[in-house]
Structures are given as structure tokens and as C-alpha cells.
Design a protein that fits this description.
46% strand, 25% helix, 5 helices, elongated, DUF2125, DUF2125 domain-containing protein, single chain
Length: 338
């Protein structure tokens, strides 16, 4: 008799537990779809607001996905055009969203190809094996944006259905922090291969590199303004902490130093150039410019007498005043205005 009572109690306990789980799942599901509906409506409202500002933005078949642990917005294809400044971007499927437990950590994945139009640049076609980005959202501006591309291929759009290859990059990573003040940017790439269309008949080896650059005013840098993209650097100052271009043979060129750009696009700065493994750099230069062998040998000899940094690499200080570059008393030429 007692065992029968205990059995009935256990069954009731299990039924109550099962009912509680079903109610919790049902409530969570209802809440998920409620939030998804609100987010989808907000996205459609934002698209309409862009259109009212003269920006053409289209998200084909906008819908939500990601249940149960994420809320994602999905577009089968996207397009973004700002005709008054000549900027356009078209791409394939995009999935953008965040986990339920971290709603300010936004991740995005885009399917190529993409077609990019920017003032001052030729129309570009981009293809990739994988392209993802992530954003930390803190109103009114994001605190961090990072992008990673695998197997990136860049070409010049010559016709509606074809493009001339310019470059391939095996691995590309970019990160930016501090959108409400000084902007800190980091770029790294590996396996950069330039096509003959980009280099002519000059043989260039596979390259890799990195750059850490700080800009003084992020808000001004991203403020809408007419003109080419490089004109956004006007009025900016900052510092190149480290920018390095490396060869497979071990040679590398590193530049660092502060810079500024005035409102007319004229550059000022003081830069330190360091050359690691100069013989490897000279060998690459001889391959690219065989008719300059004697001059390259002279430069290589001169480098051996120059000051060295803490790693033993020859170092040159280049001063740029009002766009005119000099190394000591030796004029190096004029930098183009931005």
C-alpha cells in the first residue's frame, strides 16, 4: 500500500515537472517570436527612414531566423546606394544577429559576390570563400568592429558579366575600436598575390603585412561628405604605430610615426623606416627591376652604414613638411595631396 502511494506521488511529480517544462518552453518560444517580430519591424522602419534621406537600401525577403538561441535578420540579397556621393554596395545573402544572452554582440556573415562603387576608385567586384564580421554595440556608436575574410579575390568590374582580377588575399583581418573618440585600427593580411593587371610585367612575390594606425577623430572620419574617400582624411591627425610589409624570403619594411593632414589634403609627418634583412629586399628589387642592379647594390651598401634600431635593422628618418619628403638633406619628392 505505501509503495502504491509513493508511485502515484512520483507520477504526479513527473507530470508537474513535464507540464512546467512545456509551459516554460511555450513562454520562451512566444517571447522569441515576439522579439523577432519587433526586430523585423524595426529593420523595415530603418530601411524606410534611409529611403527618406535619399539612400536606397534594399533587403530582399527580409525575415528572422536563429531560433532558439539566436535572433538573426536574414536578407536573400542586399543593396545600398547613396547616389549624391556616388557610393554603392550590392551583395548576396546576409545573416546578421546576436545570441539571446548577448544582444549587443552582433555577428554578420555575407555571401558573395559583392559589387562596390566608391568615388575615386574603379568599380570593384569582390568574391570570397568566407566573410564574417562582429560588432559590439554601445549607443550611439559601436565600440568595436572586426572583419575577417578568407580567400578574398578583388577585381575591376569591366563589363556587366566579367571582371579583371587585381589581387587575391588568403587571409584578411581588420579591427577598429573607439568610434566616439580617437579611432584605433588594426589590419593584418597574409598571402597577398597581385595579378599581372595590377603589376604589369613586374614580378612581385606573395606578400604579407600588418598595420596599427590611430586617427584623432572618428566622428569626423565617418561624417558624410562629398568627394572621394581619401578626402575624409582631411583635418585628421594620428600615428602609425607599426606598418610592416613582409616578403617570403624574410625581408620586411616597417614604417612608424605621427602624421597630420590639413584641410587641403597636404600631409605632414615624421616617419621612421626600418629594413629587416636588406639583402632579401635587394634581391626582390633586382628581380622586379633588373636594369637597376647597379643602383640597388649602391643603396644596399649605403644601408650598411646607416643607424640601426634595437633589432639591428637599418633605420631611416623621413620628414614630411607640406607634402615634401626629405631624409636628412636629401630630397625624396612630393607626396600627393589627399
Amino acid at each position: 500500500m505505501p509503495s502504491s502511494v509513493s508511485s502515484r506521488r512520483n507520477k504526479k511529480g513527473f507530470l508537474f515537472l513535464a507540464a512546467g517544462v512545456l509551459i516554460a518552453v511555450g513562454a520562451y518560444t512566444a517571447g522569441w517570436y515576439y522579439l523577432a517580430e519587433k526586430i523585423e519591424a524595426r529593420a523595415k522602419s530603418d530601411l524606410a527612414a534611409l529611403d527618406a534621406k535619399g539612400i536606397s537600401a534594399n533587403c530582399e525577403n527580409l525575415h528572422t531566423a536563429g531560433y532558439p538561441l539566436r535572433i538573426d535578420l536574414v536578407c536573400d540579397s542586399i543593396s545600398w546606394r547613396r547616389p549624391n556621393v556616388g557610393i554603392s554596395f550590392l551583395a548576396g545573402r546576409i545573416t546578421s544577429g546576436s545570441p539571446i544572452y548577448a544582444p549587443r554582440s552582433l555577428t554578420n556573415e555575407i555571401v558573395g559576390p559583392a559589387f562596390v562603387g566608391i568615388p575615386g576608385l574603379v568599380p570593384l567586384e569582390l568574391r570570397w570563400d568566407r566573410l564574417t564580421s562582429s560588432t559590439e554595440l554601445i549607443r550611439p556608436t559601436p565600440s568595436r568592429i572586426s572583419t575577417e575574410a578568407k580567400g578574398l579575390r578583388i577585381g575591376v568590374r569591366t563589363q556587366t558579366t566579367s571582371a579583371t582580377p587585381l589581387a587575391e588575399i588568403a587571409d584578411l583581418r581588420f579591427e577598429a575600436n573607439g568610434f566616439s573618440g580617437p579611432l584605433q585600427t588594426t589590419l593584418k593580411f597574409d598571402g597577398l598575390t597581385l595579378s599581372q593587371a595590377a603589376t604589369g610585367n613586374t614580378p612581385i612575390p606573395v606578400l604579407s603585412g600588418s598595420a596599427d594606425i590611430t586617427f584623432s577623430d572618428a566622428a569626423a572620419l565617418f561624417q558624410p561628405r562629398p568627394g572621394s574617400i581619401e578626402e575624409r582624411l582631411r583635418g585628421q591627425s594620428g600615428e602609425i604605430s607599426n606598418a610592416t610589409l613582409s616578403l617570403p624570403s624574410g625581408g620586411s619594411l616597417t614604417i612608424s610615426g605621427p602624421f597630420s593632414v590639413d584641410e587641403q589634403g597636404v600631409i605632414d609627418g615624421t616617419f621612421r623606416l626600418s629594413l629587416t634583412n636588406p639583402p632579401a629586399l635587394a634581391e626582390m628589387a633586382r628581380t622586379a627591376f633588373p636594369d637597376q642592379d647597379r643602383n640597388i647594390s649602391t643603396v644596399l651598401f649605403a644601408l650598411s652604414a646607416m643607424p640601426k634600431d634595437e633589432t639591428g635593422a637599418p633605420t631611416i628618418t623621413v620628414n614630411v613638411k607640406r607634402g615634401k619628403a626629405t631624409a636628412g638633406f636629401i630630397p625624396l619628392g612630393n607626396l600627393p595631396t589627399l
